[in-house]
Write a structure and sequence with these properties.
The complex is a heterodimer of chains A (about 280) and B (about 200). Chain A has about 280 residues and is of the alpha+beta class. Helix content of chain A is about 35%, strand content about 10%. Chain A has a two-stranded antiparallel ribbon with strand order 1-4. Chain A has a two-stranded antiparallel sheet with strand order 2-3. In chain A, helix 2 packs across helix 3 and helix 2 packs antiparallel against helix 4. By secondary structure, chain B is mostly helical. In chain B, helix 3 crosses helix 4, helix 4 packs across helix 5 and helix 8 packs across helix 9. The model of chain B has no long low-confidence stretch (mean pLDDT about 85). Classes of the chains: A alpha+beta (about 280), B mainly alpha (about 200).
Chain lengths: ~280, ~200
């Protein structure tokens, strides 16, 4: 019994001394952390997508708590509800969030265009672009190797029939795919926009037509039917100025009149979001 | 003086903690991917080894040995080193935030690193005096630093190499580690004959 005690007691004493020293030290030398950070972090959706421009949700929460000029409407996935909560916590005025959705400006799937080479290299659009310019007939189009799908934090992108499709209900508008696409085919749009040009080919009409049956040939028909002058053909490609779209009286005429069908009515207006954590 | 140099050199090269004694393999494989991480980790290890030795040597010599409690060595050392590192972290956070930030996550990570515990126990086993123990700790830390920096170089080369699929990742890292370790075998016997 005595041997056990002579062993236990010194260890207990040493442990107790260490504990007391640590307890005292942590009290005396406590570094104040901003109390709002965990509260703000709780409100954020936790997708860690980086759409706000900070390193993940933790980074945004820290910036909000410590820097008063940080805007509360930067969280695109969270939308209005998160922005409202953040404004309440920080006591600033609520700012509306424009939800954004990524859109692929290419509709040249396997039905409308073909591969010009049999690509058997690394499964990456960036790699394929380095070697052949593009593996498909159209040098501007989607190669369907899924660089965008790999970076998507919310599994919103799938490759179907040779091109990328974005599920607008899952898209949180973080813009990672915009940066990932080597052909710059993906852009972020406010999800109130209703029509999309699904082509990025700036070649002359004939060349485009040979490469892809669905490409914009620059026929200017949309320009003529557009009542507000929102559509202009630049570099053989229709470009929509969305600021003029709200005045449109004949909604969807550009899409229905498009000779190749590359102007399409979008399906993402105020889509209900699905977010996985 | 010669003895100090011998202890130092043999700790760095011959009895290198990672490559010859195979202690502290976890951080060696875990954080050797990038040079700056490896450097940060090694500096933290050197630092902790020194303060751990400075505290555990007196405990062993003046507390445990006189009371015939030498068998409590391991558990007391772990206890003391863990609380010591915690204390150092609190102090650094308060007074030197920049150093705290650069050592970052590595400081708590090496609290119970076997290389740190190993150096303190081996100091006692070798019968070193306090000064010799400190030199040995510094040498061991520098040896760890050398191994980490060397191996992070090897790994950055591996990243660009065309490795068969079956070997990619950890397998080739272990193979590279063993070859690096083999190369240190060449140092054995060098230091003893330096001053002969």
């Amino acid at each position: 019994m005595n041997e056990i005690l002579t062993a236990v007691i010194p260890v207990v004493i040493i442990g107790a001394i260490c504990a007391v020293v640590l307890a005292v030290a942590s009290k005396i030398m406590a570094v104040k952390e901003n109390e709002k950070i965990p509260e703000i972090r709780e409100c954020l959706p936790g997708a860690n997508c980086g759409a706000c421009g900070f390193a993940g949700c933790d980074g945004y929460a820290k910036a909000l708590a410590e820097n008063e000029v940080t805007a509360t409407n930067l969280c695109v996935p969270g939308g209005d509800s998160v922005s409202r909560k953040l404004s309440e916590i920080l006591g600033v005025e609520f700012e509306d969030v424009v939800e954004q959705v990524a859109v692929v400006h290419c509709s040249g799937d396997c039905t409308y265009t073909q591969d010009k080479v049999e690509y058997d290299g690394i499964e990456s659009c960036a790699a394929a672009k380095l070697i052949f310019g593009s593996k498909g007939e159209c040098p501007y189009g989607c190669m369907g190797l899924g660089d965008c799908a790999k970076v998507c934090p919310n599994d919103a992108i799938c490759i179907n029939n040779g091109i990328a499709h974005i599920d607008s209900r899952r898209c949180v508008g973080c813009g990672l795919c915009v940066k990932a696409c080597p052909n710059h085919l993906i852009s972020l749009m406010a999800d109130v926009e209703r029509v999309v040009v699904t082509c990025s080919n700036t070649d002359k009409g004939g060349i485009t037509r040979k490469a892809c049956k669905n490409g914009c040939i620059g026929c200017k028909k949309c320009e003529k039917v557009c009542s507000t002058g929102a559509i202009k053909v630049q570099d053989n490609l229709a470009v929509i100025d969305y600021s003029k779209c709200p005045e449109c009286e004949d909604f969807g005429i550009c899409a229905s009149e498009c000779t190749t069908g590359c102007i399409r009515i979008s399906n993402f207006t105020n889509a209900t979001k699905i977010i996985d954590n | 003086m010669t003895k100090f140099i011998i202890i130092m050199l043999s700790a760095v090269f011959i009895n290198n903690y990672v490559l010859s004694r195979f202690l502290g393999i976890c951080p060696f494989l875990g954080v050797s991917k990038k040079l700056n991480q490896a450097t940060g980790m090694s500096l933290a290890v050197i630092f902790v080894m020194l303060i751990a030795t400075a505290v555990t040597w007196p405990i062993q010599t003046y507390l445990l040995d006189p009371n015939n409690l030498g068998y409590l060595q391991t558990i007391v050392f772990i206890l003391v080193i863990a609380s010591l590192v915690q204390l150092v972290e609190i102090v650094l956070k308060k007074y030197i935030p920049s150093l705290h930030k650069s050592l970052g996550v590595y400081l708590p990570l090496i609290t119970t690193n076997c290389a740190v515990l190993g150096v303190t126990i081996l100091n006692i086993d070798e019968g070193y005096t306090f000064a010799e123990s400190m030199v040995n700790s510094l040498g061991s830390g520098l040896g760890f630093f050398l191994a980490m920096v060397m191996f992070s170089g090897v790994r950055s080369k591996l990243e660009g190499a065309d490795i068969p699929k079956a070997f990619q990742g950890l397998p080739i890292t272990l193979v590279a580690a063993s070859i690096t370790s083999l190369s240190f075998l060449g140092f054995s016997g060098v230091v003893e004959n330096l001053f002969a």
